[in-house]
Fold each of these.
Amino acid sequence: MRTKKGWTVAGALVLVMFVLAGCSTLSPRRGDFRQRGPKKSVLVFDQFFDTVQNAELQESSMIFMQLNTEKKPQVVVAKTNPMFNYWTAPNIEPGGSFKLVYYDHTYMNIVYYSVAGIQGKTPVDFIAPEAPGLFFCGRCVAAGGKITIDTSPEAELKVLKIIQVAYVASPWFPIIRNRIKELEK
């Protein structure tokens, strides 16, 4: 009886190892996108405000899925910085078409969520530019059930000045600083 239990536990462990090994080999290699850097990828950034709730979002997250079948599959999880309501997604594949499939935000410790799915269009879907570099999706403001997106140079400058702090120790920092200088002229 003791041997049978031992074999059952060992068999279960071997099965778990095979399942985990299969998952890691069948999934896309994650390092491809994370190791690209500014010379081969796009840094996407945005800022989101909800005027109904006085812009006091505690945290929000968005999941975007790359839909362009000519590009490598990529899922982007973007979490907002709760202090400044911005989100960034570095190492996006140039030319990818990204669709918002999930959004949630926390307000007064209550989580609100929306599952957009891949059908239809949302105001925050985006197509990354073909050239590597920075891409400003806009400053999104939700008011009265509508989302307006400000992509003006003034809005971009405001958001870049906020996000540069998060990228001080990264290869993106000089690119962000150069863009700030361009916009300040």
Amino acid sequence: MKVSKKLKKRRIKRIFNLYNLAVLTCIIVIIVCLIIMHNSKEKKANNSSEISQTSSKEISNVNENQENKVEDKQSEKTDETNVKENKNTDENNVNEKQDNKSEETNKTDVKESENTVENKTNVTEDKQPKKTIESLVKKGQTIDENEAKNIAIKQFKELGESDIQENDLTVKKILRDGEKYYYVTSKKNTMEIRIEDGEITRINGAKV
């Protein structure tokens, strides 16, 4: 019994000697280091995944912001085009209204001139002279307002208006039976001259 106890003590001393203890501590330290390295790698992997997720989110946010900016610019452009179209339509409407007004005024002027001519025909129909001068232009050649004034001055002088001048005359364009005429008026007389050939067709409302 004494021998066996001594053997056990020797075996225990051999197992727990300094060398074996040093080896055990080294193994424990290595295991702890491995565990720490493993945990650090997992943390780095988690951090990298989180960073990648955040970066992807930021990139997506940036892309969304850019898309929103592009959409805003497109909406602004469409708004500008709509404003321009509305302005153009308003301008066209204004121009159409002005054209209609000018046409109406021209029609009223023509009607008034015709009415004045008809009124003068009723008064001076019996005392109208015949055509005493010929046209100053060639046949088939159109005339302008100045030529119409010159023709009217010569004719009015023959009718007794000796002091007449160009400033005393008013000239309007009228349309009668599909033909254009200059309607020349002075203080005492009126005359219609055909623009197409410069022929005097009416004096004081009476046909010549």
Amino acid sequence: MLKYLLLLSLFSCASPFVVSVSSLSIKDEHVVYDYKDTSGEMLMEKVVKYKDKKVITSRKLYNNNLSNKKMLERSVTVSELGLLTVGERQTPLLRPFVSQYTVWFDGKEYFTQMKLNKVKKSLDILLKSPEEKWNGTKTIQFPTGIHFCFFSQVVECLKSTGFFKQAIEQKAGSLDLVIIWDTYPYFSEIYANLNEEVFSAATIKYETEDINKKKDDKVHHFSLDVNEQLILYEFNEKYEFEKFYWIAQGVTMERKQRKPVER
């Protein structure tokens, strides 16, 4: 019975949009980040918008050559802001809706789309690429869980829960979630030693607070434990995402500049 209730939270239409976005620290933003991995230095452009009860996150990864700017990856993920009610307790969350991801390997385009299928309680996946093994459609059933989150929307998922501010106030706390790898199945070509399944159980935890001496403000550290790898996230005292460290993969992402959000 409990398993049914947990899975029902993702597909239920009851009271889906009664949570105040402002109270959860989700806001429109357009930020450019310095992005580094084992292949070199790049730029990540990230845009977050709240529209029609949905949180839309767009990410574009470029090389760092201003004279020959080239897009390497792009993604758009859309989730619905919802509210899970179990007994007298209400929990705000994001419900994954659809994602599209494109990456270029040796100049060739690889594409994947994931979409929530409420009827089948599954994820419908469309693949298009130059390789036969990565073409066609497939349907994968959702595992048991409450908080499901696209990997590229971890920050927005974290901010959508009451856990985020509560953990900062108490300087402690953890939250279990299920990561949906929206880069599937191509992440096997990008990252090392990852489970190649589309879903991964994970835990996000508040680690510590310290002071950014350059900006003279507080820094809040969270960690995401997924596939036996640790990913670190940093937020400033305004709850804005600042840095990302994926130690095992040699990936870092650090805020470079903010741009106006197009309306």
